[in-house]
Amino acid sequence: MCYHVPVFSSQVDMIEEVKEKRPRGRPSSYDPAFCKRIIEMADEGSGPAEYAVEFGVDRATLYKWADQYEDFRTALSRAKIHEQAWWEREGRSGMRADKFNALVWKTSMQARFRDDYTERKETQLTGANGGAIQVETTKKLNINELDPEQRDVLKQALLAAKGAKK
Question: Is there a contact between 36 and 54 (Cβ–Cβ < 8 Å)?
Answer without folding.
Answer: no
